[in-house]
Amino acid sequence: MSFPWAKHYQPTNPFMRWMDEKLPLPRFVYNAIGSGYPVPRNLNYWWNFGVLAGFCLVLQIITGVILAMHYAPNALVAFDSTEHIMRDVNWGWMMRYAHANGASAFFVVVYTHIFRGFLFSSYKAPREMIWLLGVVIFLLMMATAFMGYVLPWGQMSFWGAKVITGLFGAIPLVGEPLQVWLLGGFAPDNAALNRFFSLHFLLPFVIAGVVILHIWALHIPGSSNPTGVEVKTESDTVPFHPYYTAKDGFGLAVFLVIYAAFVFFMPNALGHPDNYIPANPLSTPAHIVPEWYFWPFYAILRAFTFDFFFIPAKLLGVLAMFAAILVWFFLPWLDTSPVRSARYRPLLRKFIWFGFVPCMAALFYLGGAPAEEPFVMFSQLAAAYYFAHFLIILPIVSMVEKTKPLPNSITEAVLSKHGDAPAAAE
Amino acid sequence: MVRLIGILVGLFFSGWLLVTLVVGFIAWASEPAVKTAEHEFHQHPKELSLASDGPFGHFDTQQLQRGYKVYKEVCSACHSLRHVAFRDLEQLGYSEAQVKAEAATWQVPGIDAVTGEANTRPGMPTDYFPKPFANDVAARAANNNAIPPDLSLMAKARHDGAAYVYSLLSGYQDQPAELLKEFPDAKTPDGLHYNPYFANLNLAMAPPLADGQVTFDDGAPNDLDAMSQDLAAFLVWTAEPTLAKRHQTGWPVVLFLIILSVLAYLAYRNVWRNEKH
């Protein structure tokens, strides 16, 4: 669907007319990310991160496919083949650093994109399906990133794989056989490395498929916007191209400056030194930590230290860790407020900036800290707030909050921001 | 219904975490923290400044040559360098002929062309640095049950990389009297050596370097501190021979992208000039 005032694709070039009759791919692109897609005119920089996430996916697929040409997924030589890429393959060091830091960049961008969703309640009707697909993409990204980190077969690769697959061992009755089945053995070895490589190659294309669904679902109601007021008239929108291609182009260029600075000047800043030690099943690292982007969930996992009657603490931690993400699936129904944007929800806004943001900052820090006091106590406090925020505070606040008056339209909001008198009702 | 179940689940997780927190806090506050010798006496690496530091970092080939000499004359007795080939030495400023001659001073595993039996032969530029021990068992047997780790990636495989290598090599000392007074059980066991920069303070490797041990052709200082720095610099190179090229490539890329950002910003302002937003 589109808005009635959306521009129509009218090719003038004879080749493009011929193409449009045979395979209307240019028309499809025109309607998806071209002039045929009307977008609210008031999108701010928070809205740049969807395009950046798409860029990161393409970047990871391209660098990943090239790395796979030189990498050997065999436990005996995987570590050495990674060093071969770093030393002997032309520009191999750049490809590997671009891919490793590309994963971090992808998560930075996606976490920002998700946070935009919290801040502007982008998950609310009529955009629930976009949100649900987005959470699916995030889960797939986590699986892909985890398996990718195993491939260099360093110490953290091996022990990270052991700890994470060990989580399945916490499931009652079927846990241990399930863990052995997943790994293809009692500990991570060649069988596990091979299947992780296979799936690490496959899943990005699954992600690409779900991204297409995500964007398809987006084009049905159209993009949300910072006021949370739906588009009403043509004056509320501008065509995606050239307006947002220009704005996204600027955002992309700034993103690339920061990304390139990491790749070329501090490529190992976000990694762990232990992963430059070859995997050794007989030597356990002092602190086993996953990559930084898993730290909040790792902190939640480790916050559970007591059995709850018959439920062991480990199982409780695993359940909580998965619940921490699964709860996002229910946000469209947990939040009942008729108003979307936190701009007009003063109480929710306070809880987000002074509750949720410090809580996430703490979880990010604590997940990378050693599992000892006082870090565990802070993790327990932060994790308690995390669940309370989504499951208790959000539903109650959305019911009792007195919201601020909404602007009548996007156009009115834009004009009043510029100090102009609101346009007369049209 | 969703909200009711959600609130119950939230109360369960948050509530149990808070119960755990309170119980844990009481236990933590009532029991004095156990102090360990590692916690009290472990030291962070000393400051080290190398030519390869920072975004403009490049290799000081003179220093790398000195570090290589320290590796060859001292470290290579026990530590391998398996990711580095003799051909790589050209990057230290040696000519092709010099590398060929240098490689020939090393004995690498070979096969007798007539009998097919294993033997050794002089190295060639294409060979990698040979391992000092035939296998891990031999390495353990000769080194007080500790396998000397490969040094190729050492500068990337430890926190603070080069500074750690430098501090460890120059940081051996007698066990402080205060340590023994506070922790009588923490006396360094026989056969191990006290070093405050090592994670558990006691290291199987005996102090490998002493003042004046290696003589440098360029007449550079060869006290313990200088040699440790040279070796640390050499290991930065072995860990990432492409480091200087990475920095050199990075600047044009980043400058290009900054200019691109400015142009993209101007294009964005130009496109939006008539649209309020």
Task: Characterise this structure.
The complex is a heterodimer of chains A (426) and B (277). The model of chain A has no long low-confidence stretch (mean pLDDT 93). Chain A has helices at residues 14-22, 25-33, 49-68, 78-87, 92-119, 128-150, 155-168, 175-183, 190-219, 240-265, 295-303, 313-326, 331-334, 346-368, 375-400, 410-417, and strands at 38-40, 237-239. With 426 residues, chain A is mainly α. Chain A has two domains: 1-36, no CATH class; 37-418, Up-down Bundle (Cytochrome Bc1 Complex, Chain C), CATH 1.20.810. Chain A is globular, with a radius of gyration of 24 Å. Chain A contains 16 helices and two strands. The two termini of chain A are 24 Å apart. With 277 residues, chain B is mainly alpha-helical. Chain B has a domain at 37-84 and 129-245: Cytochrome c-like domain (Cytochrome Bc1 Complex, Chain D, domain 2), CATH 1.10.760. Chain B contains nine helices and four strands, in the order ααααββαααββαα. Chain B has helices spanning 2-30, 37-41, 61-73, 96-104, 136-142, 161-170, 177-182, 224-239, 243-271; strands spanning 107-111, 118-122, 193-194, 202-203. In chain B, β3 and β4 form a beta hairpin. In chain B, α3 crosses α8 and α6 (161-170) packs antiparallel against α8. Chain B is extended. In chain B, 29% of the residues are buried. The interface between A and B is large, with 67 and 59 residues. Chain B: One of its GO terms (molecular function) is heme binding. Chain B: Pfam families: Cytochrom_C1. Chain B: Its cofactor is heme c. Chain B: The chain crosses the membrane at residues 250-268. Chain B: This is Cytochrome c1.
